[in-house]
Design brief:
Oligomer: single chain
Strand content: 5-15%
Largest sheet: 6 strands, parallel
Strand order of the largest sheet: 3-2-1-4-5-6
Structural class: alpha/beta
Number of helices: 13
Helix content: 55-70%
Length: 294
């Protein structure tokens, strides 16, 4: 592998790319519309590309973490147009399984490989390089890409194309249910007048606890809604889950509840805040303030 490309240096992409720069021992070329992020990427040792096309032409492993299906599809189509046979495209975005399967077919027809490789863990684990990474696609491509994926976290090969993104839907239904439960429970605690920090200390070592709990509840208590992971991004995954469930002709009643809260966040101007800001839905319904910014 001569050169790695990285497209999308956002809240998640920038720390992931920097970890690849520092750990892989391979030149990493990156691009993003945000010039400040490009500067930070360059200061960490990355190479700024003149254009996305330069990455497609010069890199044989192309990592992308992009925000919308349209941008994801355009990037893959451009990678086919400007790239060369044998290239491996790793889509780290949360992409709908049916879309990734369509793209996979096009990429394979062009003599390239596409791995659907969504991640979980949010900004803190992206910086720590300990993300959960769920990867579907051709095993031979995964075996080549795995050492680079390990620079960002813990990759697990999930099976054929699309399986990584389906696994991410499972992950985000579980994560979303937990987040909504945290918000509902702590709104109840605030309404009852008990101390939230004490509640956290009393529950964090029980079955309610875990990495997500430890990460999000302190933010809730401090009313810190600066996004480590935005509601908007998680909502996209929940919509993907609903769409995929429709194709399988099954109902997801708990997922419906998660989407209801996220839709309220969207309708009330909070969609770009951290997921734990969903407590605002319960503050509105219970007429209570949860936590303190002091």
């Amino acid at each position: 592998m001569k050169k790695i490309g990285f497209l999308g240096l956002g809240v998640m992409g920038l720390p992931m790319a920097i970890n690849v720069v520092k750990k892989s021992g391979i030149p990493v070329m990156g691009n993003d519309v945000n010039k400040d992020r490009l500067k930070e990427f360059e200061e960490a040792g990355g190479i700024i590309a003149d254009s996305n096309e330069q990455i497609y032409r010069e890199c044989d492993l192309i990592l992308q973490i992009l925000p919308t299906h349209e941008i994801i599809k355009k990037s893959v189509h451009d990678a086919i147009e400007y790239g060369k046979p044998g290239n491996i495209i790793v889509d780290l975005s949360s992409t709908a399984p049916d879309i990734i399967l369509e793209l996979y077919k096009e990429v394979r027809e062009a003599g390239m490989f596409l791995l659907d490789s969504p991640v979980s863990g949010g900004n803190p684990l992206a910086w720590a390089g300990t993300l959960a990474i769920m990867t579907g696609g051709d095993r031979e491509a995964f075996d080549i890409a795995e050492p680079v994926l390990r620079c960002m976290g813990n990759p697990v090969y999930t099976g054929s194309a699309g399986s990584g993104d389906i696994t991410k839907l499972v992950n985000n239904i579980i994560g979303g249910a937990g987040l909504v439960a945290y918000c509902e429970a702590y709104a109840l605690a605030a309404k009852a007048g008990i101390d939230l920090q004490t509640t956290f200390e009393a529950t964090r070592c029980g079955f309610a606890g875990g990495p997500q709990y430890d990460n999000k509840i302190p933010k809730l208590i401090k009313r810190d809604y600066e996004p480590g992971a935005r509601v908007a991004v998680h909502r996209k995954d929940i919509l993907n889950a609903k769409h995929f469930a429709h194709k399988l002709d099954v109902d997801l009643p708990l997922t419906d509840t998660i989407l209801m809260v996220m839709d309220w966040m969207n309708d009330n101007g909070h969609i770009d805040e951290d997921q734990i800001a969903m407590v605002k839905y319960y503050e509105d319904k219970m007429n209570v303030t949860v936590g303190s910014a002091e």
